[in-house]
Amino acid sequence: MIYIILCLILCGVVFYKSTIYKRHRRSLWNKHVAITGGSSGIGKAFAILAAKEGAHVTLLARNVDRLEEARNEIKQNTVTQDQIISKVPVDVSCPEAVENNLLEIEETIGPVYMLVNCAGFAVCGKLEDLSERDIKALVDVNLMGTIYAIRAVLPKFKKRREGIIVMTSSAVGLMGMFGYSVYSACKFALRGLAESLVMELKPYNVTVTLALPPDTDTPGFENENKSKPKETKLMSESGGLYKPEVVAKQLLEDALKGNFFSYVGLESFILTTLCVGMTSVNSVLELLLQICLLGPLRLIGTYYIKNFEKIVAKCFSENHVQEK
Ligand SMILES: NC(=O)c1ccc[n+]([C@@H]2O[C@H](COP(=O)([O-])OP(=O)(O)OC[C@H]3O[C@@H](n4cnc5c(N)ncnc54)[C@H](OP(=O)(O)O)[C@@H]3O)[C@@H](O)[C@H]2O)c1
Ligand SMILES: *[C@@H]1O[C@H](CO)[C@@H](O)[C@H](O)[C@H]1NC(C)=O
Ligand SMILES: *[C@@H]1O[C@H](CO)[C@@H](O)[C@H](O)[C@H]1NC(C)=O
């Protein structure tokens, strides 16, 4: 039985990678790519890849110095003299600022073809330990910031009948996890937003890709690490730490091909397949694979969940002993 399950999973991975991804890959040559959170981590890695594809790149983030530093780094990765790499200091949680700044930059560089939403951050901790200020900021940046940026470009995408929207969710946008409460809620919300937009935008030739990065070695992750409860750290250990370049590379490929989910690694494959839900079907083969894999993967998922529960119980009793 176990053997059959393993075989199915192996076949799944091989098939999945080799056949589904043969969809037509669009080009970024001479196109305008706007990236919120493009001055650091996954967003910056994505910006570098876009520059290598011949795109004009606009970085949107708050800190001016980090923007300038990132812009210089991205400039070194351009492939032609004509590529324009620009920076826009803006807080994505302010809708007017996002809209006006994007308008302005479109006048000089041309219409945005691809919008990549990478601005975001995590604060961990048990729900009662989060400050009201942190809770509000998490929702304002991760969820509202993404909505505002998309709204600023959407009518133009629809008018031109082309465009690519990328949103950055997370593995905890598919499953809840100890210590992520509000962050997880925001990332779950992005999935609902993405699924709805896929339906709204399909007739307009605009695609939507939802990134589900695993733990990725970025300044943001280092910061998140500071607020992470012991339980969360123990649970994350099984997943490993990925490089932002690897996550961004996969994201670029998926976005250019119009794939809905973008993920890297076996664990994310398992999670994404388990949580496929009511997303639209890419191909008959993919559908067949999901039909075969969903049952067995529920079993594997149960193994993970049981382990997580054990971690929570262990930490709980340790804390209890300390309290006594
Ligand atoms: N790293 C991971 O393990 C991981 C895993 C899953 C999902 N993600 C998601 O991936 C995305 C990128 O994460 P990362 O790890 O690359 O983070 P990062 O290194 O901290 O980069 C975050 C970027 O977003 C910008 N930003 C933050 N708040 C902003 C605001 N209010 N307005 C405009 N820009 C803002 C930052 O610049 P300023 O601070 O200067 O504004 C920076 O450029 C986030 O949405 C994160 O939730 C990350
Ligand atoms: C859809 O958009 C792509 C570019 O993203 C373009 O090459 C293609 O011609 C468009 N198709 C239609 C039917 O407008
Ligand atoms: C996160 O913090 C732990 C200590 O709690 C440390 O061992 C680990 O190296 C840190 N990881 C990162 C990526 O900063």
Could you give the order of the helices and strands? HEHEHEHEHEHEHHHEHH
Helix content: 55-70%
Quote the CATH topology: Rossmann fold
Structural class determined from secondary elements? alpha/beta
C-alpha Rg, in Å?
20 Å
Low-confidence stretches: none
- Determine the strand fraction and express it as a percent band: 5-15%
Largest beta sheet: what is the strand line-up? 3-2-1-4-5-6-7
Mean pLDDT: 94
Q: What overall form do the CA principal axes indicate? A: globular
The CATH architecture term is 3-Layer(aba) Sandwich
CATH class: Alpha Beta
Oligomer: single chain
* The CATH homologous superfamily: NAD(P)-binding Rossmann-like Domain
Per DSSP E runs of 2 or more residues, the count of β-strands stands at 7
GO cellular component, one term: endoplasmic reticulum membrane
Organism: Sitophilus oryzae
GO molecular function: 3-dehydrosphinganine reductase activity
Subcellular location: Endoplasmic reticulum
Give the arrangement of secondary structure elements.
Elements (H helix, E strand, L loop, with lengths): L1 H18 L12 E5 L4 H12 L3 E6 L2 H12 L9 E5 L5 H15 L2 E6 L14 H29 L2 E6 L12 H21 L4 E6 L7 H8 L3 H7 L7 H14 L3 E2 L3 H9 L9 H40 L1
Helix pairs in contact: 1-11, 2-3, 2-9, 4-5, 5-6, 8-11, 10-11
NADP nicotinamide-adenine-dinucleotide phosphate binds next to helix 2, helix 5 and helix 7.
